């Protein structure tokens, strides 16, 4: 499939782009508000994969053009840019496309990181509310450490929880997630269940901060 | 050490009692509002452990008398009974005692289970506010499936997150947790970090409900 990573020049976008390019045959399109930056990062990622002897083609475009070229559109942007990113590419979304949101909201105080639950109920729900009629939104990849994804020598062996109200779209995303070696996709139900998943991200950071030797943590349900 | 499980006739109390009695030499005291019920459950748990060829002594008392006999007091009661249980045993708490709270708050709707965050910020914080001056509260054992603990044939291989503002009390609880085979204790920081831990419990139920073959789930940070 063709996967566009909007905000794909950021760390989680880079991690997902590298993993899919390395482990699957999907076409990867990097999106950015700045097309020059998108092209330059796309070339950089492509070179990293080819250095490992895997032939791949990663392209870079302005977000709207990237979305237009893809069936799967990953909103790899901070939580506060989810709604405006969807609005900016709305005209490039077509029937059959799927939006994926991995974002979560966090705030930090002296004790550690805390989940910052938005008024909508979750960041995933913000994406649902901003998405055009008929374009399903699936939440996934919330609890993955970007640094670990980006390091292709790092083994995963962790889970990602997938939520959505469109079962067919959810099942497509589960399958895309499992195209990444070492990643297991688990169904966590509908969009209403998003907040508890998003809250795991600050928890992972707190656990890593308080235990020597643990960093870039993921989670495994067992 | 002497560990009292207040509300120890319930399922999480039974699970912790059986695991500690089976895997360690701690003295286990079952507490209940009803001393008859406490004694009867204590005998039942003791018989289960002795059936496995392990010599143990589990006693049962009314909650206040159970707390009086122990150094470690586990509040194995539902979230809405945390404060009144602490108040009921307050006169039986002594300097050096540690209160442990494993409770979380949940509500259910058509989609699944959701974390019900109390006004205090977390259920753990409710315990802190109800505890007498000088008695430290440690949050632990929030995300353990009672059914899995109770089945001594079930392997654990999972983590429990420990939080508290008294480092020495937290370290004692981490060590008690690791006395249970297959349980790893991880430090998740101070009481302010409790909500994200408590929210994992409804998440585990949602994941189990939506994936065939998964039940009594625990979590492993990796």
From TrEMBL, chains A, B:
GO terms for molecular function: coenzyme F420 binding; cupric reductase (NADH) activity; ferric-chelate reductase (NADPH) activity; NADP binding; oxidoreductase activity, acting on NAD(P)H. The keyword Cytoplasm does not apply. One of its GO terms (biological process) is NADPH regeneration. InterPro entries: NAD(P)-bd_dom_sf, NpdG, P5C_Rdtase_cat_N, STEAP_metalloreductase. GO terms for cellular component: plasma membrane. Residues 2-103 form the Pyrroline-5-carboxylate reductase catalytic N-terminal domain. The keyword Oxidoreductase applies. Gene3D superfamilies: NAD(P)-binding Rossmann-like Domain (3.40.50.720). Pfam families: F420_oxidored (PF03807). Keywords: Oxidoreductase. PANTHER family: DUDULIN-RELATED, F420-DEPENDENT NADP REDUCTASE. This is Reduced coenzyme F420:NADP oxidoreductase.
């Amino acid at each position: 499939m063709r996967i566009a990573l909007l905000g794909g020049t950021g760390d989680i976008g880079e991690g997902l782009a590298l993993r899919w390019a390395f482990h699957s045959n999907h076409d990867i399109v990097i999106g950015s508000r700045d097309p020059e930056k998108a092209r330059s990062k796309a070339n950089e990622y492509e070179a990293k994969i080819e250095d490992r002897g895997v032939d791949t083609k990663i392209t870079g475009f302005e977000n709207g053009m990237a979305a237009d070229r893809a069936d799967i559109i990953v909103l790899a942007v901070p939580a506060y840019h989810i709604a405006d990113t969807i609005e900016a590419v709305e005209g490039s979304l077509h029937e059959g496309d799927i939006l994926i949101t991995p974002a979560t909201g966090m705030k930090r105080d002296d004790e550690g990181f805390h989940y910052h639950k938005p008024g909508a109920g979750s960041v995933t729900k913000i994406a649902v509310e901003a998405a055009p009629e008929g374009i399903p939104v699936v939440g996934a990849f919330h609890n993955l450490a970007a640094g670990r994804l980006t390091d292709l020598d790092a083994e995963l062996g962790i889970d990602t929880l997938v939520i959505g109200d469109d079962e067919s779209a959810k099942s497509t995303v589960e399958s895309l997630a499992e195209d990444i070696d070492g990643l297991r996709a688990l169904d966590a139900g509908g969009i209403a269940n998003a907040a508890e998943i998003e809250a795991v991200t600050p928890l992972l950071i707190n656990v890593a901060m308080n235990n020597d030797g643990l960093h870039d943590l993921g989670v495994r349900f067992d």
